[in-house]
Specification:
Oligomer: single chain
Largest sheet: none
Radius of gyration: 23 Å
Number of strands: 0
Length: 517
Amino acid sequence: MNAAVATSVFAVFMVATVALGLLALRGRGKGGGLAEWSVGGRSLGPVFIWVLMAGEGYTSFSYLGAAGWGYNYGAPVLYVVAYMSCGYAIGYVVGPMLWAYARRHGLVGITDMVAHRFGRPWLGAVVAVLATVFLLPYIQLQITGMGVVLSVISYGAVSLNWAYFVAFAVTTGFVVVSGLRGSAWVSVLKDVLVIATLGFLAFSVPLHYFDGYGPFLDRLVTEKGEWLTLPGHGGGSGDGGGSGFGELWFISTTFLNSLTVVIFPTTVAGYLGARSADALRRNAVYLPAYNVLLFVPMLLGLAALFVVPGLTGAESNLALFKLVVDALPAWAVGLVGVAAALSSIVPMAVFMLVIGTMWGRSVLSLVPRFAERQKSAAQVVVVVAGSLALLLTYTAPNTLVRLSLISYEGMAQLLPMVLLALVWRRLTFRGAFSGLIVGVAVVCALVFTGNDPVGGVNAGLVALAANLAVALAVTLAGPRDADPRPDAEVLAHDPVGEEDESLDVAPAARSASDHRV
């Protein structure tokens, strides 16, 4: 009976999710081109941008991984709150810069920006392929996360294989048709449920199991004090068999991730979908408030130490849901499951959309037969990317899980080419490309040989340092790029005090924006 009730609640909301995503198209017409599909026609207001970007940051990791990290290690999981908050502060400046640059030149993503900055369309294709390698694991992880959630809240009635397929089908069902706008609409439903369910759990779980926060926190400090300080439970260094998540790791990871998150392709998609630069500034001010919600699964993971001790490996990621299933009635379990599932669907939709946009715009557009059909090509790539992630979830789940180890650290290696190049004209193509090759090689070597962190420092930051050193050395020692365009054409700036209309896409760029890089 419990399984039927929880699964029915889940099914109703999944149907509503697809319907809401499709309703986002109402009044938008059938066309719209790639810009309408991929960045919402650059017309999303502050509310939609806020819920969309909050949705990208609050994924299934927040329910599963954050609780699991809290359960396994404790304090190190706070790096998520730290880097996201710092990233929003950096995004206050970077977001409007990228928005203005893309709007002025009719661009729809970071691959477009790189190709335009260095005047080499094929470079956008290279960055698209590299970014896909680093983004595809996130789709697989969201499929896995939603599948686990559905299987658990159905009390085992729905198998993992069917749950994985539901995750893929629901997301693909609306993102192919409605694009970024549909994701923004679904984010509204997701945020309402996330705030409601986590707010309820934050009070109900300590009351149910410990008679309130006082007894719970007293017991936590007395019995599990090791979880409350860095490097958390396990202590020591990674080389010595400990967690390796000490102060140096925390600082270096927070610093690296806060820089990387502002040029992450999914974050940039949110930037470019905004109606104005001012909407992005207000968004950067308000987004940190959403991070308060991240403390709830972390805290519940610590509570699970006393309620369901002994969880090991991947099972520790179920710490929160083991409490939920045990403490709540079936209908409430279903609602919590829906909130967690939508926390997979929204970011997964944006990941799929971004991959499709990069390939439709920067890779397939180089083939003459696809140059005039970029949106259709991008929609096909969305289905292909999602299907590939689903297939590998079934056949080789550990392959992409292993790749996910370098996803964020690998994406960080695009920082000089995407961000530094847009503010420093002297950076040459040879320098940026050489640095990118070195950075990716170093991060792969360190991660796959088990040397992450390196002496307590995040391996991605070590690789980025090598990347920058090579980029600067090659740039300063080599010839300047022969680029006759003025600085205003290739560099970005924060449009403070400028009217948004003055940054509108130039007529020539607007008419060609869906047909060329």
